[in-house]
Amino acid sequence: MARVLDGHHLAEAASTQQAVEKPDPVERAINARMQWGELGDVLKRNYAASTARSPFRRSLFAGPRPENAWRSYMAKVADGPLNPEKMPVSDQAAMAAETKEVARFLGADLVGISKLDQAFVYPYRFADPYRGPDTERIPIELNHSYAISIGVEMDLQKIRSTPSYIDNAEVGRTYAAIARAACDLAAYIRELGYPARAHHSSNEMVCHVPIAVRGGLGELGRNGILVNARFGPRLRLATVTTDLPLATDSPVDLGVQAFCEMCKKCATNCPGRAIQQGDKAVYKGVEKWKIDQMACIRFWTANPDKWSSCDTCIKDCPWSKADVWYHHLSARAAARSAVARKLLLWADDVIYGKHPYYKVNWLGYTSYRVGPRK
Ligand code: B12
Ligand code: SF4
Ligand code: SF4
Q1: Atom 7 (ligand 3): residue with closest C-alpha?
Q2: Is the pLDDT of residue 207 over 70?
Q3: Which residue of 10, 213, 241, 335 has the lowest C-beta tally within 10 Å?
Protein backbone atom coordinates (compact mmCIF):
# COMPACT_ATOMS: atom_id res chain seq x y z
CA MET A 1 0.00 0.00 0.00
CA ALA A 2 1.24 3.49 -0.78
CA ARG A 3 2.57 5.20 2.28
CA VAL A 4 1.09 8.52 3.30
CA LEU A 5 3.66 11.09 4.35
CA ASP A 6 3.38 14.19 6.40
CA GLY A 7 5.66 17.00 7.42
CA HIS A 8 7.86 15.05 9.80
CA HIS A 9 7.40 11.36 9.03
CA LEU A 10 9.42 11.43 5.84
CA ALA A 11 12.23 9.60 7.60
CA GLU A 12 10.15 6.43 7.86
CA ALA A 13 9.70 6.13 4.12
CA ALA A 14 12.42 4.26 2.24
CA SER A 15 11.20 5.88 -0.96
CA THR A 16 8.42 8.34 -1.61
CA GLN A 17 8.26 7.53 -5.31
CA GLN A 18 5.05 5.48 -5.29
CA ALA A 19 3.20 7.47 -2.66
CA VAL A 20 3.72 11.10 -3.60
CA GLU A 21 2.66 12.74 -6.84
CA LYS A 22 4.92 15.34 -8.34
CA PRO A 23 4.09 19.01 -7.59
CA ASP A 24 1.84 20.71 -10.13
CA PRO A 25 3.63 23.26 -12.38
CA VAL A 26 0.33 25.05 -12.99
CA GLU A 27 -0.02 25.63 -9.24
CA ARG A 28 3.66 26.65 -9.21
CA ALA A 29 2.95 29.27 -11.87
CA ILE A 30 0.15 31.10 -10.05
CA ASN A 31 2.09 34.40 -9.95
CA ALA A 32 2.74 34.17 -13.69
CA ARG A 33 -0.88 33.18 -14.37
CA MET A 34 -1.94 36.29 -12.48
CA GLN A 35 0.34 38.39 -14.66
CA TRP A 36 -0.75 36.93 -17.98
CA GLY A 37 -4.36 37.64 -16.96
CA GLU A 38 -5.75 34.12 -16.58
CA LEU A 39 -7.02 34.96 -13.10
CA GLY A 40 -8.86 38.10 -14.14
CA ASP A 41 -8.13 41.71 -14.97
CA VAL A 42 -8.31 42.97 -11.38
CA LEU A 43 -5.61 40.59 -10.14
CA LYS A 44 -3.51 41.25 -13.22
CA ARG A 45 -3.67 45.03 -12.78
CA ASN A 46 -3.23 45.04 -9.01
CA TYR A 47 -0.28 42.61 -8.99
CA ALA A 48 1.71 44.29 -11.78
CA ALA A 49 5.23 45.07 -10.56
CA SER A 50 5.64 47.56 -13.40
CA THR A 51 3.09 50.01 -12.01
CA ALA A 52 3.61 49.31 -8.29
CA ARG A 53 3.95 52.30 -6.00
CA SER A 54 7.17 51.05 -4.41
CA PRO A 55 10.49 51.38 -6.27
CA PHE A 56 11.60 48.25 -4.35
CA ARG A 57 8.82 46.27 -5.93
CA ARG A 58 9.51 47.73 -9.38
CA SER A 59 13.24 46.95 -9.15
CA LEU A 60 13.66 43.82 -7.00
CA PHE A 61 10.81 42.01 -8.75
CA ALA A 62 11.88 43.02 -12.29
CA GLY A 63 9.23 45.57 -13.24
CA PRO A 64 9.27 48.11 -16.06
CA ARG A 65 13.06 48.17 -16.48
CA PRO A 66 14.07 44.51 -16.02
CA GLU A 67 17.68 45.33 -16.97
CA ASN A 68 17.98 46.97 -13.53
CA ALA A 69 16.93 43.84 -11.61
CA TRP A 70 19.14 41.02 -10.35
CA ARG A 71 16.28 38.65 -11.08
CA SER A 72 16.65 39.15 -14.81
CA TYR A 73 20.22 37.86 -14.76
CA MET A 74 20.06 35.16 -12.09
CA ALA A 75 18.07 32.85 -14.32
CA LYS A 76 21.07 32.77 -16.64
CA VAL A 77 23.66 31.81 -14.02
CA ALA A 78 21.80 28.91 -12.38
CA ASP A 79 23.98 26.44 -14.28
CA GLY A 80 27.25 26.62 -16.19
CA PRO A 81 30.38 24.88 -17.45
CA LEU A 82 32.29 22.25 -15.44
CA ASN A 83 35.93 22.19 -14.46
CA PRO A 84 37.15 19.06 -16.36
CA GLU A 85 39.49 18.17 -13.48
CA LYS A 86 37.34 16.37 -10.94
CA MET A 87 38.46 16.55 -7.32
CA PRO A 88 38.25 13.04 -5.79
CA VAL A 89 35.98 12.70 -2.74
CA SER A 90 36.96 9.93 -0.32
CA ASP A 91 35.01 11.09 2.75
CA GLN A 92 31.40 12.15 2.06
CA ALA A 93 30.83 13.34 5.63
CA ALA A 94 33.84 15.68 5.43
CA MET A 95 32.70 16.88 2.00
CA ALA A 96 29.22 17.62 3.39
CA ALA A 97 30.71 19.57 6.31
CA GLU A 98 32.92 21.56 3.94
CA THR A 99 30.02 22.26 1.56
CA LYS A 100 27.90 23.55 4.45
CA GLU A 101 30.69 25.86 5.54
CA VAL A 102 31.02 27.16 1.97
CA ALA A 103 27.25 27.70 1.76
CA ARG A 104 27.27 29.66 5.02
CA PHE A 105 30.22 31.73 3.81
CA LEU A 106 28.27 32.54 0.64
CA GLY A 107 25.27 33.79 2.61
CA ALA A 108 23.12 30.86 3.76
CA ASP A 109 21.85 30.91 7.35
CA LEU A 110 20.72 27.28 7.17
CA VAL A 111 21.95 24.31 5.14
CA GLY A 112 20.63 20.74 4.95
CA ILE A 113 21.47 17.91 2.56
CA SER A 114 19.28 15.08 1.25
CA LYS A 115 19.08 12.65 -1.65
CA LEU A 116 17.18 14.35 -4.45
CA ASP A 117 13.73 12.78 -4.53
CA GLN A 118 12.13 12.89 -7.99
CA ALA A 119 8.75 13.30 -6.26
CA PHE A 120 9.74 16.90 -5.50
CA VAL A 121 10.88 17.80 -9.03
CA TYR A 122 8.28 19.55 -11.24
CA PRO A 123 7.40 17.41 -14.29
CA TYR A 124 7.68 20.32 -16.73
CA ARG A 125 8.15 24.07 -16.95
CA PHE A 126 6.66 26.76 -19.15
CA ALA A 127 9.08 27.99 -21.83
CA ASP A 128 8.08 31.57 -21.07
CA PRO A 129 5.73 31.64 -18.09
CA TYR A 130 5.04 35.34 -18.45
CA ARG A 131 3.80 35.11 -22.06
CA GLY A 132 0.68 33.10 -21.38
CA PRO A 133 -0.84 29.67 -20.98
CA ASP A 134 -0.07 28.62 -24.57
CA THR A 135 3.64 28.87 -24.08
CA GLU A 136 5.44 25.56 -24.67
CA ARG A 137 5.69 23.03 -21.81
CA ILE A 138 9.25 21.77 -21.57
CA PRO A 139 9.68 18.44 -19.72
CA ILE A 140 12.11 18.65 -16.81
CA GLU A 141 14.88 16.10 -16.50
CA LEU A 142 16.91 16.60 -13.38
CA ASN A 143 18.95 13.55 -12.51
CA HIS A 144 21.30 14.87 -9.87
CA SER A 145 21.76 12.62 -6.84
CA TYR A 146 21.74 15.20 -4.04
CA ALA A 147 19.83 18.30 -3.01
CA ILE A 148 21.39 20.99 -0.84
CA SER A 149 18.68 23.10 0.79
CA ILE A 150 19.62 26.57 1.88
CA GLY A 151 17.64 29.05 3.95
CA VAL A 152 18.08 32.79 4.44
CA GLU A 153 16.49 34.60 7.38
CA MET A 154 14.01 37.41 6.65
CA ASP A 155 14.37 40.38 9.00
CA LEU A 156 12.01 40.19 11.98
CA GLN A 157 11.05 43.88 12.08
CA LYS A 158 10.43 44.10 8.35
CA ILE A 159 8.25 40.97 8.43
CA ARG A 160 6.34 42.36 11.41
CA SER A 161 5.21 45.26 9.22
CA THR A 162 3.08 43.00 7.06
CA PRO A 163 1.00 43.73 5.08
CA SER A 164 2.93 46.66 3.66
CA TYR A 165 5.51 47.58 1.07
CA ILE A 166 8.11 47.14 3.85
CA ASP A 167 7.86 43.37 4.18
CA ASN A 168 7.50 43.17 0.41
CA ALA A 169 10.89 44.88 0.05
CA GLU A 170 12.38 42.31 2.46
CA VAL A 171 10.88 39.49 0.39
CA GLY A 172 12.50 40.96 -2.75
CA ARG A 173 15.83 41.51 -1.02
CA THR A 174 16.02 37.97 0.36
CA TYR A 175 14.92 36.42 -2.96
CA ALA A 176 17.93 38.13 -4.55
CA ALA A 177 20.25 37.25 -1.64
CA ILE A 178 19.36 33.57 -1.65
CA ALA A 179 19.50 33.33 -5.43
CA ARG A 180 23.00 34.72 -5.35
CA ALA A 181 24.08 32.33 -2.56
CA ALA A 182 22.61 29.35 -4.47
CA CYS A 183 24.25 30.37 -7.79
CA ASP A 184 27.62 30.95 -6.09
CA LEU A 185 27.43 27.58 -4.31
CA ALA A 186 26.53 25.74 -7.53
CA ALA A 187 29.42 27.48 -9.34
CA TYR A 188 31.82 26.52 -6.53
CA ILE A 189 30.79 22.86 -6.81
CA ARG A 190 31.19 22.93 -10.60
CA GLU A 191 34.73 24.19 -10.00
CA LEU A 192 35.33 20.98 -8.00
CA GLY A 193 34.41 19.15 -11.20
CA TYR A 194 30.85 18.05 -10.31
CA PRO A 195 27.59 19.05 -11.98
CA ALA A 196 25.52 21.45 -9.86
CA ARG A 197 22.49 23.64 -10.56
CA ALA A 198 20.98 26.44 -8.50
CA HIS A 199 17.19 26.51 -8.14
CA HIS A 200 15.83 29.90 -7.14
CA SER A 201 12.72 31.91 -7.87
CA SER A 202 13.82 33.00 -11.36
CA ASN A 203 14.79 29.53 -12.51
CA GLU A 204 13.64 26.57 -10.42
CA MET A 205 12.81 22.97 -11.24
CA VAL A 206 12.06 21.82 -7.69
CA CYS A 207 9.59 22.42 -4.88
CA HIS A 208 11.78 23.67 -2.03
CA VAL A 209 9.68 22.96 1.07
CA PRO A 210 9.59 19.12 0.95
CA ILE A 211 13.29 19.08 0.02
CA ALA A 212 14.08 21.26 3.02
CA VAL A 213 11.99 18.95 5.23
CA ARG A 214 13.92 15.98 3.87
CA GLY A 215 17.21 17.83 4.56
CA GLY A 216 16.27 18.39 8.21
CA LEU A 217 15.70 22.16 8.11
CA GLY A 218 12.28 21.90 9.76
CA GLU A 219 8.72 20.68 9.42
CA LEU A 220 5.79 21.61 7.22
CA GLY A 221 3.43 23.81 9.25
CA ARG A 222 -0.31 24.39 9.10
CA ASN A 223 0.63 27.57 7.24
CA GLY A 224 1.82 25.45 4.29
CA ILE A 225 5.49 26.39 4.51
CA LEU A 226 8.62 25.25 6.33
CA VAL A 227 8.90 25.99 10.04
CA ASN A 228 12.46 25.93 11.40
CA ALA A 229 13.56 25.76 15.04
CA ARG A 230 15.61 29.01 14.92
CA PHE A 231 13.65 31.25 12.57
CA GLY A 232 10.22 29.60 12.44
CA PRO A 233 8.79 30.15 8.95
CA ARG A 234 10.66 33.49 8.61
CA LEU A 235 12.81 32.13 5.79
CA ARG A 236 13.50 32.20 2.09
CA LEU A 237 14.54 28.89 0.58
CA ALA A 238 16.55 27.76 -2.41
CA THR A 239 18.05 24.44 -3.51
CA VAL A 240 21.26 23.37 -5.23
CA THR A 241 21.09 19.96 -6.89
CA THR A 242 24.37 18.17 -7.59
CA ASP A 243 26.29 14.93 -8.08
CA LEU A 244 28.99 15.91 -5.60
CA PRO A 245 29.08 12.91 -3.20
CA LEU A 246 27.75 14.11 0.16
CA ALA A 247 26.61 12.63 3.45
CA THR A 248 22.93 13.40 3.98
CA ASP A 249 20.92 14.79 6.89
CA SER A 250 17.67 13.33 8.23
CA PRO A 251 14.23 14.87 8.70
CA VAL A 252 13.59 16.26 12.16
CA ASP A 253 10.64 16.12 14.54
CA LEU A 254 10.60 19.54 16.22
CA GLY A 255 7.07 19.20 17.54
CA VAL A 256 5.87 21.73 14.95
CA GLN A 257 3.01 19.66 13.59
CA ALA A 258 1.93 18.74 17.11
CA PHE A 259 2.01 22.48 17.95
CA CYS A 260 0.00 23.31 14.82
CA GLU A 261 -2.74 20.84 15.83
CA MET A 262 -3.72 23.13 18.73
CA CYS A 263 -2.35 26.52 17.67
CA LYS A 264 -4.20 27.62 14.48
CA LYS A 265 -2.97 31.20 14.92
CA CYS A 266 -2.01 31.52 11.25
CA ALA A 267 -5.39 30.17 10.17
CA THR A 268 -7.30 32.49 12.48
CA ASN A 269 -5.32 35.57 11.48
CA CYS A 270 -4.87 34.92 7.76
CA PRO A 271 -6.55 37.99 6.21
CA GLY A 272 -7.26 36.03 3.03
CA ARG A 273 -8.86 33.05 4.82
CA ALA A 274 -6.49 30.82 2.91
CA ILE A 275 -5.37 28.56 5.77
CA GLN A 276 -7.42 25.69 7.13
CA GLN A 277 -8.74 25.50 10.67
CA GLY A 278 -9.58 21.81 10.41
CA ASP A 279 -7.60 18.58 10.30
CA LYS A 280 -4.94 17.57 7.80
CA ALA A 281 -6.11 15.73 4.68
CA VAL A 282 -4.25 13.73 2.05
CA TYR A 283 -3.37 15.69 -1.08
CA LYS A 284 -1.21 14.09 -3.80
CA GLY A 285 -0.07 11.44 -1.35
CA VAL A 286 0.89 13.82 1.44
CA GLU A 287 -1.06 14.42 4.64
CA LYS A 288 -1.15 18.16 5.23
CA TRP A 289 -3.12 21.34 5.63
CA LYS A 290 -3.60 22.51 2.04
CA ILE A 291 -3.46 26.26 1.40
CA ASP A 292 -6.12 27.93 -0.76
CA GLN A 293 -3.84 29.64 -3.32
CA MET A 294 -6.53 31.83 -4.85
CA ALA A 295 -7.73 33.13 -1.48
CA CYS A 296 -4.13 34.07 -0.63
CA ILE A 297 -3.43 36.05 -3.79
CA ARG A 298 -6.82 37.74 -3.68
CA PHE A 299 -5.66 39.32 -0.44
CA TRP A 300 -2.26 40.21 -1.92
CA THR A 301 -3.98 42.17 -4.65
CA ALA A 302 -6.80 43.66 -2.55
CA ASN A 303 -5.15 47.03 -1.91
CA PRO A 304 -2.23 47.82 -4.23
CA ASP A 305 -1.80 51.30 -2.75
CA LYS A 306 -0.80 49.73 0.56
CA TRP A 307 0.72 46.29 -0.12
CA SER A 308 1.34 43.76 -2.86
CA SER A 309 1.87 40.52 -0.93
CA CYS A 310 1.58 39.24 2.63
CA ASP A 311 3.58 37.60 5.40
CA THR A 312 0.93 37.37 8.14
CA CYS A 313 1.23 33.57 8.37
CA ILE A 314 4.94 34.11 9.09
CA LYS A 315 4.56 37.13 11.36
CA ASP A 316 1.93 35.60 13.65
CA CYS A 317 3.48 32.14 13.97
CA PRO A 318 4.73 31.63 17.56
CA TRP A 319 7.87 29.99 16.09
CA SER A 320 8.76 33.13 14.15
CA LYS A 321 10.63 34.99 16.88
CA ALA A 322 14.03 36.62 17.33
CA ASP A 323 17.00 34.27 16.97
CA VAL A 324 17.95 34.39 20.68
CA TRP A 325 18.68 31.76 23.37
CA TYR A 326 15.35 31.93 25.23
CA HIS A 327 13.43 31.30 22.03
CA HIS A 328 15.76 28.40 21.20
CA LEU A 329 14.99 27.03 24.65
CA SER A 330 11.24 27.38 24.05
CA ALA A 331 11.55 25.57 20.72
CA ARG A 332 13.40 22.72 22.42
CA ALA A 333 10.71 22.48 25.09
CA ALA A 334 7.99 22.46 22.41
CA ALA A 335 9.69 19.51 20.73
CA ARG A 336 9.60 17.48 23.93
CA SER A 337 6.30 18.00 25.73
CA ALA A 338 2.63 18.63 25.04
CA VAL A 339 2.35 20.59 28.30
CA ALA A 340 5.19 22.87 27.21
CA ARG A 341 3.45 23.44 23.87
CA LYS A 342 0.24 24.49 25.64
CA LEU A 343 2.13 26.81 27.98
CA LEU A 344 4.11 28.37 25.15
CA LEU A 345 1.01 29.03 23.09
CA TRP A 346 -0.66 30.65 26.11
CA ALA A 347 2.47 32.77 26.72
CA ASP A 348 2.58 33.78 23.05
CA ASP A 349 -1.01 35.02 23.21
CA VAL A 350 -0.32 36.94 26.43
CA ILE A 351 2.98 38.53 25.33
CA TYR A 352 2.39 39.13 21.62
CA GLY A 353 -1.42 39.02 21.50
CA LYS A 354 -3.86 36.72 19.74
CA HIS A 355 -3.90 39.08 16.75
CA PRO A 356 -0.48 40.79 16.86
CA TYR A 357 -0.04 44.19 15.25
CA TYR A 358 3.26 46.10 15.08
CA LYS A 359 3.45 49.72 14.03
CA VAL A 360 6.43 49.95 11.67
CA ASN A 361 7.42 53.06 9.71
CA TRP A 362 10.30 53.01 7.27
CA LEU A 363 11.29 55.25 4.34
CA GLY A 364 7.82 56.74 4.18
CA TYR A 365 6.10 53.33 4.16
CA THR A 366 3.93 52.13 7.00
CA SER A 367 2.35 48.91 8.29
CA TYR A 368 -1.42 48.32 8.20
CA ARG A 369 -3.70 46.66 10.70
CA VAL A 370 -5.85 44.04 9.01
CA GLY A 371 -8.41 42.13 10.99
CA PRO A 372 -8.41 38.37 11.51
CA ARG A 373 -10.74 36.22 9.42
CA LYS A 374 -14.44 36.67 10.13
C1 B12 B 1 3.42 28.99 -5.94
C2 B12 B 1 3.97 29.54 -4.64
C3 B12 B 1 3.12 30.34 -3.88
C4 B12 B 1 1.64 30.52 -4.21
C5 B12 B 1 0.86 29.31 -3.72
C6 B12 B 1 1.23 28.81 -2.31
C7 B12 B 1 1.33 27.33 -2.24
N8 B12 B 1 1.10 26.80 -1.07
O9 B12 B 1 1.65 26.64 -3.20
C10 B12 B 1 1.31 31.84 -3.48
C11 B12 B 1 1.53 32.96 -4.44
C12 B12 B 1 -0.11 31.93 -2.92
C13 B12 B 1 2.39 31.82 -2.40
C14 B12 B 1 2.30 32.48 -1.22
C15 B12 B 1 3.29 32.49 -0.28
N16 B12 B 1 4.54 32.05 -0.40
CO17 B12 B 1 5.10 30.94 -1.86
N18 B12 B 1 5.78 29.84 -3.15
C19 B12 B 1 5.29 29.27 -4.23
C20 B12 B 1 6.34 28.43 -4.96
C21 B12 B 1 6.88 29.29 -6.10
C22 B12 B 1 5.89 27.10 -5.51
C23 B12 B 1 5.11 26.22 -4.51
C24 B12 B 1 4.30 25.19 -5.26
O25 B12 B 1 4.77 24.51 -6.16
N26 B12 B 1 3.01 25.10 -4.91
C27 B12 B 1 2.11 24.15 -5.56
C28 B12 B 1 1.87 22.92 -4.68
C29 B12 B 1 3.15 22.09 -4.55
O30 B12 B 1 1.48 23.42 -3.40
P31 B12 B 1 0.95 22.50 -2.22
O32 B12 B 1 0.44 21.21 -2.74
O33 B12 B 1 0.06 23.32 -1.39
O34 B12 B 1 2.32 22.15 -1.41
C35 B12 B 1 2.89 23.06 -0.51
C36 B12 B 1 3.30 22.35 0.78
O37 B12 B 1 2.34 21.44 1.20
C38 B12 B 1 4.66 21.74 0.45
N39 B12 B 1 4.67 20.39 -0.10
C40 B12 B 1 4.36 20.01 -1.35
N41 B12 B 1 4.56 18.69 -1.51
C42 B12 B 1 5.05 18.22 -0.34
C43 B12 B 1 5.46 16.94 0.03
C44 B12 B 1 5.91 16.73 1.33
C45 B12 B 1 6.32 15.36 1.73
C46 B12 B 1 5.97 17.81 2.26
C47 B12 B 1 6.45 17.61 3.64
C48 B12 B 1 5.58 19.12 1.86
C49 B12 B 1 5.12 19.30 0.58
O50 B12 B 1 5.20 22.59 -0.57
C51 B12 B 1 4.23 23.51 -1.08
C52 B12 B 1 4.61 24.93 -0.63
O53 B12 B 1 5.78 25.25 -1.22
C54 B12 B 1 7.40 28.21 -3.83
C55 B12 B 1 8.85 28.07 -4.36
C56 B12 B 1 9.15 26.65 -4.74
N57 B12 B 1 9.54 26.39 -5.94
O58 B12 B 1 9.02 25.75 -3.93
C59 B12 B 1 7.21 29.45 -2.96
C60 B12 B 1 7.39 29.37 -1.41
C61 B12 B 1 6.73 28.08 -0.95
N62 B12 B 1 6.66 30.52 -0.91
C63 B12 B 1 7.19 31.01 0.14
C64 B12 B 1 6.60 32.04 0.92
C65 B12 B 1 7.43 32.59 2.06
C66 B12 B 1 5.32 32.51 0.64
C67 B12 B 1 4.52 33.59 1.36
C68 B12 B 1 4.73 33.80 2.84
C69 B12 B 1 4.63 34.92 0.61
C70 B12 B 1 5.90 35.63 0.80
N71 B12 B 1 5.84 36.72 1.47
O72 B12 B 1 6.94 35.23 0.30
C73 B12 B 1 3.08 33.12 1.07
C74 B12 B 1 2.62 32.07 2.07
C75 B12 B 1 1.41 31.31 1.57
C76 B12 B 1 1.24 30.00 2.25
N77 B12 B 1 0.75 30.04 3.48
O78 B12 B 1 1.59 28.96 1.68
C79 B12 B 1 8.52 30.33 0.48
C80 B12 B 1 8.39 29.44 1.70
C81 B12 B 1 9.56 29.58 2.67
C82 B12 B 1 9.35 28.66 3.83
N83 B12 B 1 9.53 29.14 5.04
O84 B12 B 1 9.00 27.53 3.65
C85 B12 B 1 8.84 29.57 -0.88
C86 B12 B 1 9.62 28.27 -0.72
C87 B12 B 1 9.61 30.58 -1.76
C88 B12 B 1 11.09 30.67 -1.41
N89 B12 B 1 11.95 30.47 -2.39
O90 B12 B 1 11.46 30.94 -0.30
N91 B12 B 1 3.44 31.07 -2.78
S1 SF4 C 1 0.39 35.09 2.83
FE2 SF4 C 1 -1.24 36.18 3.97
S3 SF4 C 1 -3.11 35.75 2.80
FE4 SF4 C 1 -1.56 34.25 2.14
S5 SF4 C 1 -1.85 32.45 3.44
FE6 SF4 C 1 -0.31 33.72 4.45
S7 SF4 C 1 -1.51 35.00 5.86
FE8 SF4 C 1 -2.95 34.18 4.39
S1 SF4 D 1 0.88 29.81 13.54
FE2 SF4 D 1 0.55 28.00 14.80
S3 SF4 D 1 -0.66 26.65 13.49
FE4 SF4 D 1 0.27 28.16 12.15
S5 SF4 D 1 2.19 27.25 11.46
FE6 SF4 D 1 2.68 28.48 13.27
S7 SF4 D 1 2.55 27.00 14.96
FE8 SF4 D 1 1.50 26.08 13.22
Answers
A1: 260
A2: yes
A3: 335
